[in-house]
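Q: Structure for this?
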Amino acid sequence: MRGAASSMSVLRPRSAKEALAAYAAHPSAIPLAGGTDVMVLWNMGLLNGRTVLDLSGVSEWAKTKKTPRGLSLGALITHQGLQQDAVVTTRLPLLAQACATIGAQQIQNRGTLGGNIANASPAGDTFPVLAVYEAVVSVMGPGGARAVPFSGIFAGVKKTTLAPGELIASVDVPFLAKKPSRQLFRKVGTRLAQAISKTMAAGLLWLEGGRVEELRFALGSMAPTVRRLSAAEAYVKGRKLDAKTVEEACSLLEDDVSPIDDIRSTREYRLQVSKNLLRSFLS
Amino acid sequence: MPSVGRSPSRREGPDKLCGAAKYIDDYDFGPETLHGVTLRSTIPRGTIKSITFNPLYPWKDFIIVTSKDIPGENVVALIEADQPLLAETVIRHPMEPILLLAHPNRQTAYEALKQITVEYEALPGVFTIEESLAKKQLLHGTDNVFKRYLIEKGDVAAAFKEAAHIVEGYYRLPHQEQAYIENNGVASYVDKDGTIVVMGSIQCPFYVHKALMKAFHRDGSQVRVIQTTTGGGFGGKEEYPSIIAGHCALLALKSGKPVKMIYDRHEDMAATTKRHPAVVRHRTGVAKDGRLVAQDIEVVMDAGAYVTLSPVVLSRGTLHASGPYDCPNVRVRASCVATSTPPNGAFRGFGAPQTLFAAELHMEKIAAKLGLDSLELRRKNLLRLGSTTSTGQLLTQSVGAEEALEKTVKKSGYLKKRREYDAWNQKGSNPTWRGVGLAVCHHGAGFTGSGEVMLASRASVQLGKDGLVHVLAASTEIGQGTNTMFAQVAADALGLPLEKVVVDVPDTARVPNSGPTVASRTTMVVGGLVRRAALLLKADLRYAPKDLKKAAKILTKSYEVEYERPTDVVWDDKTYKGDAYGCYSYAAMVVDLEIDKLTYEVTVREVTTAQDVGKAIHPLFVEGQIMGGTAQGLGYALLEAPVYKDGFMANSQLTNYIIPTALDTPPMDVSIVEKPYSNGPFGAKGVGELPLDVPGPAVAAAVFHATGLWLTELPILPERLCAAALAEAP
Amino acid sequence: MIKLTVNKKKRSFAGHPFKRLLDVLREDFGLTGAKEGCGEGECGACTVLVDGRPVNSCLIPVCQAEGAKVETVESLGTPDRLSRLQASFLECGGAQCGMCTPGMLMTASAWVKGGGSAEPKAIRGALAGNLCRCTGYQHIVESVAKCVKKKARR
């Protein structure tokens, strides 16, 4: 363990207001939520000498609220908390499923929805689901509050579009207006628990009269950020899902992703398996 | 009531279960304690040009040790004297230790490493077996080969001419990390009388003792090594502790203070030993009826940058290379070569899992080529009483291969599953492919050939003033159950209740040298010594008062015995002929698995195994060894893929080096077969390593059954399955 | 000053608020049961219960445990008086080298207390955050199942 506690400064705000003020005063501080990512880096000795903004005391960001359109999930709600929320499990089942695949219980008990987004890993386990649910991230900062569509929250690997001094307050997830004909969440990881994904898919499909009314399909770990398959989604709209259409959709998959070889997997595998998942979902 | 064959409670179990057992980092050596850290090479190969300390840094607060501070020889004493304790100018692998720092604060010590700049002149490295064999760079001698062995039995060339079929195969095995949950760690201090003391997580206290004597130029009485509760070893704490102990003792000697050196996971994985990667080629001649008539086998292992234990690992690999089969004509040519990677070393199985993977999977290949059932092929060729091994060893007792095989086949429903899964796989709409695979392995117990004779191990028992019989041996408890097993063996030999026996902590100042805790030898060899020593005490107890406290006043001596070669074990090191091991243990395994057609993820549904251990002194622990070894073997087969970049381990974290969780590990049905061995205590042979040999080939066979794909390189990752499937696709 | 309850005792910690809970337990409170195996929340050897839930104490700065109820392996039983769960582990071979054991026991104790079932697959899922390299897990799963059954019988 290489993290030196004595080298650290800790800011411990007790409210959202205090948190934003503290962050404004210390713009280089590292926001800390459940610590399941930040503390790993700290243990490696990579954050010594830094200031940490501990958000765990900001209780107003740890609540779920019903909104007219869906749920407003506080950024500090844990992955375990989301799985225990009856509204989440019934109305947003893919989100509950995704949370259940994160690490194991120890991680789910600490890691938070907002912290996971702020960490902006390409492999964030909730991201494909939030992408297909078309969530909106509520951000607060020196310039006030703003709503960022989930598709616009990531700037790259480990990078968000948050401005200096901005923090994630909640994630607003609308309920689906109409029950989907099919839905899918599938994480393909290095093992059955405590795994980082190699590829990960979330899908929603609405069929009307044998034709595709709408497809939403997102992949994680396949590009620097989570990706919706916009080309495939647009192509299948209004079509019957015959073998030819499905194959064309699968080949269009590559338009929206750019998987790589890394220590966890290969580009070839990621592409092939992602196509298999899409094919199976559409067939 | 005798305790052998029952499963009494683990001796140190209650302490471990309450958090009261003390591992090295749990000890508090007082406020003076320093923490040691290691500066390591950041290049794979080259020379050190200069080492610069940031002049603005408060170095006076640190203890700094370089190779110049070594009082004796700058060498890690093991087989060859080629590995320095600290690099002087030459760097032969990444993460090679260069200098040491100690400071009262562990994190400050780590931070200070960043204030030292090492300038190198880099040389190109050699990173694979192929590059080494091609002499891309010369790392050692004239051909990069550290060691060679040759086994010759019968006339292979002539036999090939007669063979009805010839089947060739090529197999490849990766590094594997031991991944004990407790990282390497030791503490050291200099006693009032000047003795250098090292305590720590250690498998072989006398290896460390020997290494310290050499590095510190001291005799045995001035060096003392004490084992603390050890959080797993699996070979990973066989030879490496000699290095970390040497480092820690250097800091302790220079500072005059207690020093702790505890590696974190990254350092432990990146710098310490791994299982040897290997390539194995088979060429096999088979008669019309399926009998093996000739085996020509070539083995090459990657030793890494220094010799360390590679000759012994290679030896065991060589001796097991022909599999558990009786073939009249065998040639095994084996070598281990140098590469610019951290030295590879001991890991449970010690060369055998590599060569047995090749031998067993090759049997599947032969069966497929000949259109035979692989079970029938095995039945035809399996080692039995009266068989001779590749070294010409005649097996006259304790051969349970057949019984293990038949039991496993029956209990697993192997034949029925073969048929059912064939039907399942026919149906294209099923979401998975299913397969069952079979493997049989043998594993020699104890040191190879004359190894035990040269070790001349000793163990003793002594009646204590506390009225208890103390077992004194250097064999360590590392989770496998040594403490409990020794107590059972001694108690039964003495005819005393188990509670009357205690097993003392391995402390080189107090216990005789029983040799290392390796090679599946602790029960069979050292357990045998404990039994003999106990019998000596028993003979004297006949004339002593019944009350053991009173008896202790008279029987004050230590009852010590030394290893005696069984007269029926004869071995010639020069020709590699004779009785390579006193006896072998045998295992058969059926792996039942399923492969997702969308993701190529492999789920092992069930493992069925029967293993012949001679006699299970403690059946629950034997089962524990079998299950634990199986899980490591399944990891080796399916998950564990160390990634190397320029000789550095790129995934030196438990996040990225994937070992099985409880969910990845299948239910296991374990049967113990007992074919007693006359030279083992109560008939016992070894069980420590055997279970790791079988899962690899059984998994690969099951994958072949499920998919028809030959995956001859471990691990069988979904990526490899996917690539193989795509390559096969029309 | 950070106040917390550890094994039912009120404790306060005057050191640095960013010190890890694991180090505070081990170094300041003398509770060396929880172990460090990886320092990245992967192995679970440092598992303790915070407000009844298993967490990795290597990933928690002590300031985040302010006011929390922390339970470590030392809260379960003593070598002379093992808890039901510990006794089941002893009986079924659930501990070998013992390094994962304290963390494993804490996760298992939350499972048993929370009314978890004796079904092996479910137990495996619950224990998936605790790596063990010795046992192959089956004896651990059997230990937990035995404890669940003993509890039900009572």
